[in-house]
Amino acid sequence: MEDAGKLKIELERTKMELGVLYEISNAMRTTLKLDEILYIILTGVTAHTGLGFNRAMLFLVNEKEKIIEGKLGIGPESGEEANAAWTKIEEEKMDLEDLIAAFKSSNSILESGFNRQVRNLKVSLQDRNDNPLSLAVLEGMPLHLTNQTIHKYRSSPVIKMLESNELVLIPLKAKDRVNGIIVADNFITNEPITKDDIRMLTMLANQAGLAIENSQLFELTSERAHSDYLTNLWNHGYFQYLLQTEVEKAKATKKPLSLLIIDIDDFKIYNDTLGHQAGDKILKDLAQLLRNQSRKMDFVCRYGGEEFMIILPQTDKEEAFMIAERIRKDIQRYPFLNEGILPNKQLTVSLGLATYPKDGLLPAELITSSDKSLYQAKNKGKNNTCSN
Predict the structure, then answer these.
(1) Per-residue pLDDT at 46
(2) SS3 state at 352
(3) Which end of the chain has fewer CB within 10 Å, C or N?
């Protein structure tokens, strides 16, 4: 009888575990957006209806820069915050689906202090001696740090930040390549991490690694489809979509938005004299310069020919004019190849500026307004910035 009772408990637990994994797996299949997938994974790790850890973080491997980067952290910052969150989930009977829906409708998780701390963490991929993250990536095996072993890594930024006595690190894999790490602990309840916890987390990690790789491949394909073949900037079609989206955001947030059009002065002379290959080199170099001189929040696009557009979110006319002038002067100073053949012995640009809502409420109106400003800049003798 005792064996039958044990077997029944085992079967119930296995049924529950499979149910949780099935639910998380289904949720991951509903989106290809990386931020949503990362949230679904960590919600599965931390939700009471999921694996039930108190806190979890997700890191991705950046092979190009040889670093491991913090991407998302979910968890309370104190016992009071934990109890408030758990009580709300209990009272509202929120399941995994409800928690995922709540994330899609609010950015409160992304704005939490814990998540900001996680996103600021970057560690070397090579530093395996003092860094448990690197060790887990390089060995591709789960790493369970207990009260007896965690002291070895006290100098690690992750261990310092968490101040935990026990945690587990699980590598995420796609085709035998580690592309991320989940770190989880129970810093509020102090419940020990069991072999069953690690087994469940490993099964989830196997699905998560593939979901992340699919998302990254989709984003890469999408980016290539929307990029200009020559300059790798956003192309004309995607510019129209971005401008529409940013105008809608500006309208909703009641914040300004500026649009810059940039046109190379006397580019026809350069092309006609040196040929289109030389002209293409200029366009590539200018695109790189514009990308380097723009803020992270800006969208640099190739509009067509020798014309470029920069969408400047949350930027009023005065600030946009200062940005435009800085760009114009940087381009004037840059030593472009064979620029001496141009009338002024240097390559310059003219810029036109328009700002939402003053110069237009619709994308088409902003484009027309920036075009008019560009025309003024050309008429003033080129190498100028103008706004209405």
Answers:
(1) 85
(2) strand
(3) N
Alpha-carbon span 144 to 146, nearest angstrom: 6
Structural domains in the chain? 2-225 (3.30.450.40), 236-387 (3.30.70.270)
Question: How many residues are recorded in the chain?
Answer: 388
Q: How far is CA 204 from the centre of its chain?
A: 23
Distance, CA of 46 to CA of 52 (rounded, Å): 5
Sign of CA dihedral 118, 123, 125, 129: negative
264: tokens are: 């190379």
Grouping H, G, I as helix, E, B as strand and the rest as coil, residue 143 is strand
Q: What is the pLDDT of residue 155?
A: 87
**What is the CB neighbour count within 10 angstroms for residue 31?**
17
- Helix, strand, coil % in the chain, rounded to nearest 5: 50, 20, 30
Work out the number of other CB atoms within 10 angstroms of the CB of residue 229.
8
Q: What is the pTM of this model?
A: 0.65
Strands of the sheet with 349-356, listed across from one edge: 299-304, 307-313, 257-264, 349-356, 385-387
d(CA 320, CA 206): 47
Model confidence band, residue 96 (pLDDT cutoffs 50, 70, 90): low
Q: Which SS3 state, helix, strand or coil, does residue 318 take?
A: helix
What residues act catalytically? Answer: 306
25 vs 197: which has the higher pLDDT: 197
pLDDT tens digits for range 210-261: 889 988 888 888 778 898 889 999 999 999 999 999 999 999 889 999 999 9
Could you give the CA distance from residue 243 to residue 311 in angstroms, rounded to a whole number? 7
